[in-house]
Specification:
3-stranded mixed beta sheet, two-stranded antiparallel ribbon, 6 helices, 5 strands
Length: 144
């Protein structure tokens, strides 16, 4: 079973993207669009203080009649951030995402952010793991 550390090592883009709590929602959306990501960490003085996602935008800006240019991230971010550690497994991440109805998991080790995993990253890792198992089974059958 793959660990979070292994998934992060294989991830194409390992750069950490974040915004400050005083950034506007519009600025955060620009950062997300530029990096082709669906969520961004909100960090202050090197610490994670929240996470902002497309879902937050839809529910807390659009549906509440706010403007993205006039609203600060700190006012609508999710401040109770669910995260994982590098030693956790792919299955544990999938279970956590399912239980919490989330699509992004920051990876922290001793309060240091190592990266972010998306549901897409986990699906990709699951498919790769299944392909490896299939290849091993085919090889076993062919040599038996």
């Amino acid at each position: 079973m793959q660990t979070v550390r292994q998934i992060l090592e294989r991830k194409a883009s390992r750069s950490l993207v974040s915004v400050a709590p005083d950034s506007t929602v519009f600025q955060a959306l620009q950062v997300m669009a530029e990096n082709d990501i669906g969520a961004v960490l909100v960090m202050e003085a090197g610490d994670v203080v929240g996470i902002f996602s497309e879902r937050d935008y839809a529910r807390r800006i659009v549906l509440q009649g706010r403007t993205s240019a006039g609203t600060r991230i700190r006012d609508i971010m999710t401040s109770r951030v669910v995260y994982v550690t590098p030693e956790q497994t792919l299955d544990q991440c999938m279970a956590l995402m399912t239980e919490k109805h989330i699509r992004h998991l920051p990876v922290l080790e001793s309060s240091i952010v190592l990266g972010m995993l998306s549901i897409g990253d986990l699906v990709h890792a699951t498919i790769a793991e299944q392909e490896e198992t299939i290849n091993q089974l085919v090889h076993y059958i062919q040599t038996a």
